């Protein structure tokens, strides 16, 4: 008979080679999964930084001119925009240097940035037209712009915990 009872051609010796190959494949898969978890952790860091800096800058744009007694909001807008762009550039460089991206990444990033964009747009348009320098608008709405990032961080942490 060509094979052993385990169905491998060549008998029991072949079964040992199959087990070694299977063990190597499982080790490689675990290594890939660990890289994916690190990538997810990297995106959680991205979300934490973005979700902290951008709302602070949003509040500064809305409240800065009022608190500083400025007639024009332009100096504050230019300064905070420069800070936001610097942070975004640093975050993009940070994420590009992380080599592995899971299949979840594009959907998670698109959903997070879309939700943030809608909240940020509403905050800025409504705030600059109807609530200039009004803390009752700018503080809660600045916090609201951080919520998509907080939700993504929670999702990533749950996903990582489940996958271990």
Explain what the structure shows.
With 164 residues, the protein is mainly alpha-helical. The chain has a domain at 52-163. Helix content is 81%, strand content 0%. It contains five helices and no strands. It has helices spanning 12-68, 74-96, 105-130, 135-144, 147-163. The mean pLDDT is 82.
Q: What attributes does this structure have?
A:
5 helices, mainly alpha, single chain, 164 residues
Distance between the termini: 42 Å
The beta-strand count equals 0
Main beta sheet strand tally, sense and closure: none
Could you tell me the strand content as a percent range? under 5%
What is the helix fraction of residues, given as a range? over 70%
Unreliable spans = none
**Structural class by helix and strand composition:** mainly alpha
Shape from CA axes? elongated
Mean pLDDT: 82
Q: Helix tally? A: 5
| Radius of gyration from the alpha-carbon trace, in angstroms | 25 Å
| Helix/strand order, N-terminal first | HHHHH
